[in-house]
Every structure is written in structure tokens, then in C-alpha cells.
Design goal:
It is a single chain. The protein is mostly helical. The protein is built from 46 helices and eleven strands. The strands form three sheets. It has a five-stranded parallel sheet, with helices on both faces. β7 and β8 (254-257) form a beta hairpin. The longest helix is centred in the N-terminal third of the chain and has 19 residues, at 115-133. It starts with 14 loop residues before the first helix and ends with a helix.
């Protein structure tokens, strides 16, 4: 018999599959990444095949990382990847330590912190960095048991493998097949999938011969045929026969079956293997089974309360029996089915008690939150609801509630719900637990239940700190369901309660201010925020001060007092900076600061502030704020005329991760650009995507979408309907000044003087005493359209030049050219100059529709442009790259990674990744190595 003690397995009948994996390894060594799925029934040899390939990969110089999902841990996010990438509490690697600190709640905390999303972003960045050290192989085994966040990370990595020297391998069973797992089969091409079937008869006989030590005889061959070509079953079957002395090798080397007691199934064969172990070894293995398919010896020592010296005899026996194998520095069951057999043989009540004891030992040893929670989960998942939460676990939950909610809110709900039920009726403990349970329900999207729990707790709790916290949760819940007004009465009543300190009153006033702001009561919100600051006086409360200043800055923005908002941002950010519980507020302040700089035509400052917000959102995994800042950057770049960059930025985050309003805004930005470039089909596709979400935002006005819909009617030759789209926006809404300029232009084209006059009066009021260049330019533009005064329109064009808004400038020059042509038939020179200047601006934007439209219009006036305009930009090949793409391609050729390029160009790694994907598509190549090769070929061809 061949011993199974070193973690290797016989690999028979898989030469074809192994050669395909070897080819993919050669590709990744050459710099060409690949995502591969390997699937097949349990015991069919998937893991053994991939392990053999990983040995080859390591010999070829690849880094190899291996993690696996398991049933016990699937409720906890990212465990397979944390294991694979060696994320432990102390790693001595700053990149890994950052992830560990994040999950512990040290880097991001507070209500709403999504630690799993933050850690996912960090892990993706870590994989990128590791790939810069050399080609890498990352395996996630038992992917069918992995949590949804792990599957999402695998999916994102699979989409980006062309940019990395990474062989990404997912190993899974056919069932269970969840929706997110089905998505992987759409991402990974059929040519990159391996489905392992049952071994053919020759391979079965070869495997049995290798295991038994000789050619199988007729009876053994017949028995082996009953294993249905499953390598694990064959291995367990032959081992069981050997242990029972039922195999005998004759002089001719034929292995004959001499007994009749043979296992009838795979579970029975596994049970036979375990039956040969001593009770001491089985006891240790049962404890190990609680920890999962793989486990550290240190954790095993903790949960068994034994020293390594005491454990060694049992572990050696288990390895010699083929139950355990070495897995790097840890141990693992040779197959998950072996662990399952040990686990299932324990009665449920015994299992739960063992899990509780293991959790207690791990908590006392200060193990990471997820490892303790993993042991507590069976306590709440058992059908026996009488199992109480022990007092130590209640205390532990109170200590770790916030990071647990941020990392695994579903697990937090399960544990906190049982703890609230079992906790003694102590005001502080019960109230604090209920408050955290409400937060957990809010994080999983059950807003109604979160509100009910918080309201019930508010009736019982008297501790002012907990009561204010509960009020915060209730306000959040009601705001999310459009019922903000319901909170005001309770908040005002709470202000009158005795025993409140200044910080309690200040926080309640801030909640009132935020509620008033949600209701659109800007002035009342400002008064409440100012009252909160006055209540605090010299007392320090970062939360209350920061949010109060945020409300005041929002009021200034709403009133169009952009310059007045800037010092409020600076003051607020000086207070909240570095506080992990106020990350979300910090992001809001940065995003609004960026928008304010943009409104003041300070585009450089706006993009800098947005870049800072994006870096923080990326680093902390705040997907909601990341989508908002990406959208803000897209709008800024649209206004600044950097349209190719705008298209890349709004495409960085997928629609399914965006708020409906952000989806509408981003597709509106893209549609505007495509319409102006004459790419009508692409523009209409974006409008169709936006239409799917627009019903969900109600009456909310999204400026970019309104502009795009208006442009759609212009393209269809219906300027009257285009104007109607713009004028349908309520006059009192702060919906964007670009709408007013376009409405005035269309009304002037249609000869609707009254509408132009109304718009001009409104714009004049907006621009009164304003020093903002684009506002002054807009007032001149509308007045010039109303009076058909070319000189005024030229002044408007100069104002838009100062504002840094090339599209608006081109429109003003176009209007001036028309005014010259219509009013001064003999002055063709002025008309031609304005017309030529407008054409040049449209051409720089690649606005081919505007170029064609304007040339046709002026041919009717008998005016033609002298110099030839440049042709439409190429769509494929090196010449099709935008300036940003060209810079990124040059840095790729230098060997820089996406994070390094991002740092060099002040972009986000996500944005760089989007640009690299575009480069690969335009050059029709498959990897970064190919980009370098194409660059050399292009340079050679161009001399």
C-alpha cells in the first residue's frame, strides 16, 4: 500500500486535464493571466489535480496561494481569501496588516461601516501588488461553500486577469449552484473550464494497482467497478480492504480479494478508516473538525487546552492513517468528506457545547472576531432554541458588535438576536444589545425590523448615551423610507428630558438638523445645526460638531452660496480627520467640497478633492460613496471637456453597485458625450439603461439625464420636444445652470422670444453680484440670445473660456457666428472667424455631430471654413488611444503596476484598470506583455 501521509495523492487518468493546466501555467509565467474553473462531483479528484498543477507552478517560479471554503464558515465573508493570502493578526507585512486591522475595526468603524467591502478592496489591491513580485497562482477550493463576498472578489479578479500575471483557479462541485456561482460560468469562457468526469476503466485499474501494490484480480476488479470511477471512493475502498487484511498479492503480482466484508459506500469506507484510530486520536480530530477543513495547530491547542507536545501523538497517528495532511504551516483533513464524517458522528447537543467551548477559548486568546463568531453560529443555527447564550458571549458581543456588524451583518443579526432574548433585564446591557441589533438589521436591509427594535428599546432604556444612539438609528430608518417628519416630535420631546448633558442635547439637535435638511427645510436645518454648535460650547464632540458643520455647508450649497461653503468644509474636515468612526462623514465633506470647487470653476481643486475622496472610499471599501465620487468626477470632466476620461470614470463601478440616481447621472453623462460625437446608437443604449432606474428616483432631477434626453430629441429633429424636456424641470429646483443655457438656445432657435426672456431674467438674478465666471458667462449668453447681439455672445464665449468650459464656449461662439451672419450680411469675416473658432473647439472635443451640424448650417449662409478639420479619431490600433490611455500604456511598458500608475497619474487603481481594459481592446491584445510588444512594433513602424 502507498501511504497517504504527505498531502499528495495519486493522479491517474488526468493527463489531458493536467496538460491544459500546465499550458495555462506557462502562459502566466509569460505574463498572460487566466481565470479557470474546475468542477466535478465530490471525490472526483479536482483538488488533487489542481494541487499537482500548483507543484508545477511553484517549480516554474510562481507564487502559489491556496484557500478553501467550507460549510462552517460560509456565513463569514472572505475567509477563503484571508487564508489563501495569509492574512493573520500579525504578519510583519504592512500590506497584510492593513487588511487585518481593517477587519478588526481599527481603520474604519461606526454605524454603516462595511468592513467586508473595505477588506475586499484591500485584498484585490494586495493581489495586484503580489503579482508585481512575480507570476502568481491563486486557488479558491470548495468555491461552492464560499461566501458571496469571496465569490464577488473572485469575479472581479477574473475580469481583470488580462492585466495581471495571475492564474486564478476556482474549484467547485456542481451543487449547490447559487446565482452568483452561475455568473462565474458567464465570465469564464468555455475554453477555460475543466469538468472532471469519472475515471475510465483503464484508469480505474491503474489507480487500484498503484494503491494495492499489484494488478487487481477479477474479484477486486469487479468490486472497483462499483466505485463508479470516483478516485476518493477507490482510495478509501482499497485502504479499507488493506486494513482488514482482505487483499493478498500472489506470486504473479496479482492482487486478490480474500474477504467478503467490504464497504458498501463512500461514507462507510471513510468510517472504516476512522474506526482504526485510537479514541485519543478521534477526540482530537473531533475538536479539529469544529475548526473546519483546514486549521492551525495553535487554534487546536487553544480549543483543546492541550500543549503541542500533548497533541503530537494524536496528530502523528492521524497523519499516518491518511486522515490529516500538511497544508503549508497548518494541517487539513485529507478530504472535506472525512471531516464531515467526524463532525456528523457527534450528537447535535454535544456539537453545540463543543463549539461554545471552542469559542470561549478562542475569545479568551483574543482570536479574530470571525473565528470566534464561526464557533458561536451553531448555537443559533440549531433547531433547539433553548440553547442559551452564555454570559461571556454576551460581554464579547458587546465588545465586538461594531466590527462584527461591519464584517458579517447577517451573522451579527443571528447572534445579537439570541443574545437580546437571553440577556438579563439590565438596562445598560439589554439596551446596548438592542441598539446594536437594530444597527445589524439596518445593515442587512431590514429597515422596518431595525426601526421596530430601536423603538421598543427606547421605551425601556434610560441611559442617555444609549437613548441618543437609538434615536440615531430610528432617524436613519425613517429617512431611508421617506418618513423623516415622523422623527421630529420624538426628538423634540427627547430634548426636554432631564439629566441630559450638553453633548446629548447637541447630538439630538444635530439629528433634528439632519431631519429638517432631508425635508428640504434648509433654514430650519441651519438653525438647529447652529444651536447644536452653541450647545457644545467648548465641549468636544467630533460627531456632533462635524455633522452640524456638514448641515450648514449643505445649506450654503443649496442657496448657491458656494464660496461661503468652503470654510465650513475646511473647519469640519479639521475636526473629523483621522477618526475611523467618521469615515462616512469625511467622504461626504470631500465629495461636497469637490462639487463646490466645480461650481466655482476651480476644476483643478475640484479634481484634487475628488481624488482624495476616491482614495479614501477605495481604501475603506465605501462602495456607496465611491460611486458618488466617481460620478462627481465624471461630471467635472464632462464640464472641463475631458470627455474620454469622463467616459472611463463613469464606467469604473458597475451599475449593480450604484444608487439609482447615480446610475441615471452616469448614463446621462455618457449619453451626452456620445450624442455630441454622433454616436447615436451608443447614446440611446445609455438612455435605455438609465430608463430602467429612473422610475426608482421619483421626482428627483438628474441634470445630465435631462440634458441627454433633450439631446435625443434634437438628434431626432424635434427641437420643440427637446425644449419641452428642459422647461419641464420645476423653476424652483436647483437642477443645474447648463439646462437654462440649453433651454435659451433652443427657444431662440424656435423663435420663442418669451421663453428666452423668462430664462434671461432668471439667469440675470442668479448671476447678480456673482464673481463665478460661468455664471457671468451664462448671463451674457442668454442676453446675447435674447438681443441677438454677437458682441455680447463673444463676451460670453470669453467668460466660458475663463471658466474652463469648452462646450459652452463653443455654443456661445456658434451663436455669435449665427448672429453675425444674420445681422450683417456684408460682414462675412466676423461670422467666419466665430464659426471657425467654434468648429475648432467642437473638433478638439471630437464632437463630430456638432461639427457636421455647424458646417451644414453655415453652408446655408454661404460660409465655408478654410482649413480642413481633422478626421474622426481611429477606433482601433495605437492611434485610437486617448491621451490618458497613451500615458498609461507608456507606463505599462515601463513595467509599472496599476497602483503604481495610479499614484503617478493621480488616478484610482480602478480607473487605471478601466483604461488598461480599453487599451487591450483597442490594440486587440490579451496581456500587459502584449501591450509592450505592440508599443515596440508601433515605435519601429513610426521610425
Amino acid at each position: 500500500m502507498r501511504p497517504l501521509t504527505d498531502g499528495t495523492e495519486l493522479l491517474v487518468g488526468r493527463d489531458g486535464e493536467l496538460s491544459r493546466l500546465a499550458a495555462w501555467i506557462r502562459d502566466v509565467v509569460a505574463g498572460r493571466g487566466q481565470a479557470v474553473l474546475v468542477d466535478g462531483e465530490p471525490g472526483i479528484g479536482k483538488s488533487a489535480l489542481v494541487r499537482a498543477a500548483c507543484v508545477t507552478a511553484a517549480e516554474e517560479g510562481c507564487q502559489v496561494y491556496w484557500g478553501a471554503g467550507d460549510e462552517l464558515g460560509q456565513a463569514l465573508p472572505l475567509l477563503p481569501l484571508l487564508d489563501a493570502l495569509e492574512i493573520t493578526p500579525v504578519t510583519r507585512d504592512p500590506r497584510r496588516d492593513a487588511v487585518s486591522e481593517l477587519l478588526g475595526g481599527d481603520a474604519v468603524a461606526g454605524k454603516g461601516a462595511d468592513l467586508a467591502a473595505a477588506a475586499a478592496e484591500q485584498l484585490i489591491a494586495l493581489v495586484d501588488q503580489l503579482c508585481q513580485d512575480g507570476p502568481a497562482v491563486l486557488v479558491v477550493d470548495e468555491l461552492q461553500w464560499a461566501d458571496s463576498t469571496t465569490v464577488a472578489v473572485w469575479s472581479r479578479l477574473a475580469r481583470s486577469v488580462r492585466q495581471l500575471p495571475l492564474l486564478l483557479i476556482g474549484v467547485m462541485r456542481p451543487v449547490p449552484r447559487r446565482d452568483d456561482l452561475r455568473t462565474l460560468f458567464r465570465i469564464v469562457r468555455p475554453s477555460e473550464r475543466l469538468r472532471l468526469g469519472r475515471l475510465a476503466e483503464p484508469a480505474v485499474l491503474e489507480l487500484v494497482a498503484a494503491l494495492a501494490g499489484g494488478k487487481p484480480g477479477a474479484r477486486l476488479e469487479e468490486l472497483a467497478a462499483g466505485a463508479a470511477g470516483n478516485p476518493l471512493y477507490l482510495t478509501e475502498l482499497v485502504d479499507a480492504l488493506s486494513r482488514s487484511s482482505c487483499l493478498e498479492v500472489d506470486t504473479a503480482g496479482i492482487v486478490e480479494l480474500t474477504g467478503t466484508a467490504t464497504p458498501d459506500s463512500l461514507p462507510e469506507a471513510i468510517a472504516d478508516r476512522l474506526g482504526f484510530l485510537s479514541e485519543a486520536a478521534r477526540s482530537v480530530l473531533r475538536a479539529a473538525a469544529l475548526l473546519g477543513d483546514g486549521f492551525s495547530v495553535a487554534d487546536l491547542a487553544t480549543v483543546t487546552n492541550r500543549s503541542l507536545h500533548e497533541l503530537l501523538p494524536a496528530l502523528d497517528e492521524a497523519r499516518a492513517a491518511g486522515v490529516l495532511v500538511a497544508l503549508d504551516d497548518d494541517l487539513a483533513f485529507r478530504h472535506p468528506l472525512i471531516r464531515r464524517a467526524l463532525y456528523d458522528e457527534m450528537p447535535t447537543a454535544v456539537r453545540v457545547a463543543w463549539h461554545q467551548a471552542a469559542a470561549s477559548a478562542l475569545a479568551e486568546a483574543h482570536a479574530p472576531v470571525e473565528r470566534v463568531a464561526r464557533q458561536l453560529l451553531p448555537m443559533v443555527s440549531t433547531t433547539d432554541s433553548r440553547v442559551p447564550v452564555p454570559p461571556w458571549a454576551v460581554r464579547w458581543l458587546l465588545d465586538v458588535a461594531m466590527p462584527l456588524i461591519g464584517q458579517a451583518p447577517v451573522v451579527a443579526v443571528a447572534l445579537l438576536r439570541r443574545a437580546v432574548r437571553d440577556a438579563p433585564l439590565d438596562d445598560a446591557v439589554t439596551g446596548a444589545l438592542a441598539c446594536r441589533l437594530a444597527d445589524a438589521y439596518y445593515r442587512v436591509g431590514n429597515v422596518a425590523q431595525a426601526e421596530r427594535i430601536a423603538c421598543r428599546a427606547l421605551d425601556r432604556v434610560r441611559d442617555p448615551d444609549v437613548r441618543v444612539d437609538l434615536h440615531t438609528t430610528i432617524v436613519q430608518c425613517r429617512g431611508a423610507t421617506g418618513r423623516s417628519a415622523e422623527s421630529l416630535a420624538a426628538l423634540n420631546e427627547a430634548l426636554g428630558q432631564p439629566g441630559l448633558q450638553a453633548r446629548h442635547r447637541a447630538r439630538l439637535l444635530v439629528l433634528i438638523a439632519r431631519t429638517r435638511r432631508d425635508l428640504g427645510e434648509v433654514d430650519s436645518a441651519g438653525r438647529a445645526a447652529s444651536a447644536a454648535l452653541a450647545e457644545l460650547g467648548e465641549a468636544e464632540d467630533r460627531w456632533a460638531t462635524g455633522w452640524a458643520l456638514h448641515v450648514l455647508s449643505q445649506g450654503a450649497m443649496t442657496r448657491g452660496e458656494w464660496a461661503a461653503a468652503l470654510p465650513l468644509f475646511e473647519r469640519a474636515m479639521a475636526i473629523v480627520r483621522g477618526d475611523p468612526t467618521l469615515i462616512d462623514l469625511t467622504l461626504l465633506l470631500r465629495i461636497n467640497q469637490s462639487v463646490t470647487f466645480g461650481a466655482l470653476d476651480r476644476y483643478t481643486d475640484a479634481l484634487t478633492a475628488a481624488g482624495q475622496a476616491r482614495e479614501l472610499a477605495d481604501r475603506t471599501g465605501s462602495v456607496a460613496r465611491l460611486t458618488q465620487v466617481q460620478s462627481a468626477i465624471g461630471q467635472l470632466l464632462l464640464g472641463a471637456g475631458r470627455w474620454d476620461d469622463a467616459l472611463a470614470e463613469v464606467d469604473v463601478v458597475s451599475d449593480d453597485r450604484k444608487d439609482p440616481g447615480v446610475v441615471c447621472c452616469d448614463h446621462g453623462v455618457a449619453a451626452i458625450i456620445h450624442f455630441h460625437r454622433g454616436e447615436t446608437a451608443a447614446a440611446r443604449r445609455h438612455l435605455d439603461f438609465a430608463a430602467l432606474q429612473s422610475e426608482r428616483i421619483g421626482d428627483q432631477v438628474v441634470e445630465s439625464l435631462v440634458r441627454a434626453r433633450s439631446l435625443a430629441f434634437e438628434h431626432a429633429g424635434a427641437p420643440d420636444r427637446a425644449l419641452a424636456v428642459l422647461t419641464a424641470v420645476p423653476a424652483g429646483d436647483d437642477a443645474g445652470e447648463e439646462l437654462l443655457g440649453d433651454a435659451a438656445r433652443l427657444a431662440a432657435t424656435l423663435g420663442d422670444v418669451q421663453t428666452v426672456a423668462e430664462i434671461e431674467a432668471r439667469v440675470r438674478a442668479i448671476a447678480a453680484e456673482s464673481a463665478v465666471p460661468h455664471r457671468r458667462a451664462l448671463a451674457l449668453y442668454c442676453r446675447g440670445l435674447l438681443e441677438r447681439d454677437a458682441a455680447t455672445l463673444l463676451r460670453a464665449a470669453d467668460g466660458y473660456r475663463d471658466a474652463g468650459r469648452p462646450l459652452s464656449r463653443a455654443k456661445a461662439l456658434e451663436a455669435a457666428a449665427i448672429a453675425f451672419a444674420e445681422a450683417h450680411a456684408e460682414d462675412r469675416g466676423s461670422a467666419r472667424a466665430a464659426f471657425t473658432h467654434a468648429i475648432d473647439l467642437y473638433t478638439e472635443l471630437d464632437a463630430q455631430w456638432d461639427v457636421a451640424r455647424l458646417r451644414a448650417l453655415f453652408r446655408a449662409f454661404g460660409i465655408r471654413r478654410g482649413p480642413t478639420v481633422k478626421h474622426r479619431q481611429a477606433t482601433h490600433g495605437w492611434d485610437s488611444l486617448t491621451p490618458t490611455e497613451s500615458r498609461i500604456a507608456a507606463l505599462v511598458v515601463e513595467g509599472l503596476s496599476n497602483p503604481q500608475i495610479a499614484a503617478r497619474l493621480y488616478l484610482s487603481p480602478r480607473t487605471v484598470g478601466t483604461h488598461v481594459s480599453h487599451i487591450l481592446t483597442k490594440l486587440d491584445v490579451h496581456s500587459r506583455i502584449d501591450i509592450a510588444r505592440e508599443a515596440a512594433r508601433h515605435q519601429s513602424a513610426s521610425g
